[in-house]
């Protein structure tokens, strides 16, 4: 941005009637006039000096990021919040923000949280980022396990061969309980309702159907399924 700099002693600003109105000292950079003393002028001079001092734009960007990071603390899970080991003052400010229901009161409290965030050490800020990232990853894993449990439930009920595949992956399963649930789910299966299907309505399922899902989900959560293309549940 600092290349192609052309110095200009003055720059004439014209009024709507094309009459000279004001003279400014400055220069042109890539066709853009930069007035001396302006924020852009100061930033360009810092770039020319090659200093490490952050510009106002950089400081504003960092401040906004820390403000948003502080707001995210309100939705951070309790265990992860504790794990982040935040300073007492920030912890109390976040707890107070959760209690405030008045819009203006909450807005002022969030500004206070942003102020506290800007005083944190870099290690504390990184700890907050790590906790938020862990929460996002955990939510994604939980969603994946739910879909996987649904697939396994449907496969176990529909395909006799699926039981052996499941047991091969999860040998700690109570086989007698699972076989009994599968038999009951097949008995409870409602007859096909073409009208409901055409309307996109799911048929009402029995208790065994739901218990199979719960059993499968518990195993997937506590003992992640081994990665194997042959053992993965399929979808039609």
Write structural notes for this entry.
There is one protein chain. The chain has 236 residues and is mainly alpha-helical. The protein has ten helices and three strands. The chain is elongated.
Q: How is the main sheet built?
A: 3 strands, antiparallel
- What does the overall shape look like? elongated
Tell me how many strands there are: 3
Low-confidence stretches at least 5 residues in length (pLDDT < 50)? 1-7, 228-232
Task: Produce a short descriptive summary.
The chain has 236 residues and is mainly alpha-helical.
How is the secondary structure organized here?
Elements lengths: L4 E10 L5 E10 L2 E4 L3 H11 L6 H17 L5 H7 L3 H12 L3 H15 L4 H37 L2 H9 L5 H14 L5 H5 L8 H16 L14
Antiparallel strand pairs: 1-2, 2-3
Helix pairs in contact: 2-5, 3-6, 4-5, 6-7, 6-10, 8-10
Q: What characteristics describe this protein?
A:
236 residues; mainly alpha; 3 strands; elongated
């Amino acid at each position: 941005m600092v290349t192609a700099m052309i110095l200009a002693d003055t720059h004439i600003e014209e009024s709507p009637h094309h009459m000279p109105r004001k003279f400014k000292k400055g220069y042109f950079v890539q066709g853009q006039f930069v007035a001396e003393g302006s924020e852009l002028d100061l930033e360009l001079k810092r770039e020319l000096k090659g200093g490490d001092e952050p510009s106002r734009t950089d400081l504003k960007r960092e401040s906004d990021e820390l403000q948003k990071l502080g707001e995210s603390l309100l939705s951070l899970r309790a265990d992860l919040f504790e794990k982040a080991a935040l300073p007492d003052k920030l912890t109390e400010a976040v707890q107070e923000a959760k209690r405030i229901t008045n819009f203006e009161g909450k807005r002022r409290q969030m500004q206070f949280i942003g102020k506290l965030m800007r005083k944190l050490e870099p290690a504390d800020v990184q700890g907050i980022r790590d906790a938020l990232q862990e929460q996002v990853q955990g939510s994604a894993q939980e969603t994946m396990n739910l879909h996987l449990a649904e697939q396994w439930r449907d496969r176990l009920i529909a395909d006799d061969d699926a039981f052996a595949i499941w047991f091969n992956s999860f040998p700690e399963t109570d086989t007698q309980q699972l076989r009994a649930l599968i038999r009951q789910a097949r008995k409870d299966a409602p007859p096909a309702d073409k009208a409901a299907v055409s309307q996109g309505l799911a048929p009402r399922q029995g208790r065994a159907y739901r218990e199979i899902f719960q059993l499968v989900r518990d195993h997937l959560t506590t003992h992640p399924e081994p990665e194997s293309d042959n053992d993965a549940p399929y979808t039609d």
